Amino acid sequence: LFWNVCIPMPKMLMPEMDLGYEVTHISLNTDGSSLLLAGSHNINVLYVHERVSEDGDTIICRTAPVASQILPTNNNGIKVLQTSWHPFSSSHFGVLTSDAVFRLFDLSFDLEQPEQEFYLQPILPGRCQNASSICPVAFSYGSDHLWDRFSVFILFSDGSIFVLCPVVPFGCDYSKKHIEEIYEDVNTFGLKSSNPNVVTNSHLAIAWLEATFPELLRQSADSSTLMSRARAYAPVDDSLTLQGPLCRVCEENNELEGKNSSCEGKAVGFVYSSVGKDSVLVTAWGSGQLQIDALADEIQPQWSIGVPTRLNVDSHGRIKSVAMICDSNPQDSSALRSHRSSSMGSNVKSNTEAVWMGHSPPLLRLSIVDLALPKTSNGSSLSLFLDPLVPERFYCAHGGGLDMVTLHFLPFSYPEMASTPPSVHPVLTTGNSDTSSPFLSGFVAIADAYGHVQLVGITYTGECFVVEMKGWKEPTPLQLDICSKDIKDVESSTTGMISKELLAGPDPPILPSSTSLRSLTPDSIEGKSTLHHYIKVFHEHYVEYGHKVFIELKEHEDYVKTEIEDKQKRLQAVKQSLLSIEAKDEEINKRVNRASKVYDLLEKRIESFKMLPAANKKPLSQAELEFKSQLDRFADVELDALRTSIAALSARMKRFTQPSLGGGAAGTGMAPFQAPKAGRGHVSESQMSLMKSSLERLSLLNEENNQKLRVIETELKNKEQQ
């Protein structure tokens, strides 16, 4: 078992041990550090960057088994149906097994015990009418759309689709903007529902969001962060509800269908795609049909009240793993049917009543695509792959080849294209009538830097093909002959691919041994005949080969010319990009220089600020503290008393220094000035001089007090600044 990695020098990665089983699925995580190697009963993880040894181009990487205690070692019992990395985490991957259990493992924590386990019970015990209804087939994660990003869609072999919501890997990051959008939606519409079960689920959803993403409770403090990390949380007394089976709405008569009766066989493949405002579900059937549905409503979280969850916590009370039994709600379909009939009977309905009704979202039938595959007893094996650039496009691989399907009508994104059916174009055809087994042992769609998609596939015969998809351009189908191991173009004049026969060169002629030629002379009849014969042989092998090469290169000229023009256009675009980058580089250099100058100026200002007295302040000594307390007391009590005394003395001084007005107040209506009574005569000159000297001393004292007041105020200002 080995893998070739497309790096500048090709390397061969090999596991450090013999896996002991046939690998049927290989998957690389988002950051390219880990590789899942899945078989029918075993799973291993190969760590790409953890190399044990190297021998030339061969690299031995560390390999570890996954869930060896759960999966049997004798290839009997539990079977691995599907493994897939989680799109929002590089260390979490999901595993769906034949015992109807979906497990989520954390590569960075524990490879033996799953982080989350969901035991699926699509029907109630004792009500099973079809054994295929309890056999899971595949699952798919939701994409970046409301609650879809927290959903896992599970397909069963009878075609029924169930949903688990919410399912979040512990420790993965989500966009905070999207989390806040969901949180606002629950508070706005979920709590306004008239259904008490919906209100209960809304309260559980709000509690789940607040516990899983605690940043919602402190939005003002963490407004600068763009991502929110999911915390480990699960309700203790409640478990997730297995929503479904999702009913289908028939567009012609607006009636509900529990199952598609037009598709035959059993479901063999499943894929989810988010296209604009629509969530598209594609189901592949063994009869060679593709069933394309879209969600007619938004997915909402649902819990089964009173069904406890098993939690495994550590010594600090943190959740290590979660396990729960997920039962379906048998009343969901009947309740949805009654709600549908009642809503059709009423002409006017408010928006708040139409949302969060507590039912699983119905499916709107978009189309059924029949690939016209030959009928076989065991049915056909179909595999579905999404296009990495065009979400409306997906690929279906089967025994007859590889087909591309493009959707044109979507109910919410492209409602104007309602009359346009999906288009199907063959990318590769094999001409093989036996379609019970796929012809591809590996397939991947890779997006390049020019907005194109490269389809790379490896057949069971060891042939590798690469098809370039340019935007919405439809590819030219290729014809693969499995018996001769040759790939031919259906229209060779338009593809520009040189045949392998010419690339391999001419077949060398069969030459006789050198001993037999040495016995002949050029002048003899036998020598001339032999020489003429080999000249004819060389002409047939080399001259005709050169003529074929000339003809094909002449036909190849148009293709090379087109490719050269394409490369020239790309080169001009790259040159323009380089010129714009150079112009931006000069502007960036100017901005960097300007920022450096500002930085130097700020450093100088910081150094000057360090020289200020307040920058090197020290704690006050005991004497300074006592002096400060005296100043405070003086400022609070004595300063006011001193100002009052100064004001009183000033008033008295003015009263004594004013001359006697005599009878000047007679005309004013005021009481006339009365002369001093007997025994108190006028003030003598000595008393007046004494009074003036006292006033002068008071003035000097006042000036000294004013100076002290200024000092005190200065100290108080310095204290306030410190």
Features:
about 725 residues, alpha+beta, 10 helices, elongated
How would you describe the overall organization of this protein?
This protein has 10 helices and 34 strands. The strands form 8 sheets. It has a 6-stranded mixed β-sheet, with no helix packed on it. A 6-stranded mixed β-sheet has the order 7-8-9-10-24-23, with no helix packed on it. It is of the alpha+beta class and 722 residues long. Helix 1 runs antiparallel to helix 2 (196-212) and helix 9 runs antiparallel to helix 10. Strand 3 (25-28) and strand 4 form a beta hairpin. The protein is elongated and about 175 Å long. 31% of the residues lie in helices and 27% in strands. The chain has a domain at 117-252 and 263-274 and 292-337 and 356-365. One of its GO terms (molecular function) is structural constituent of nuclear pore. It comes from Aegilops tauschii subsp. strangulata (Goatgrass). InterPro entries: Nucleoporin_Nup88, NUP88/NUP82.
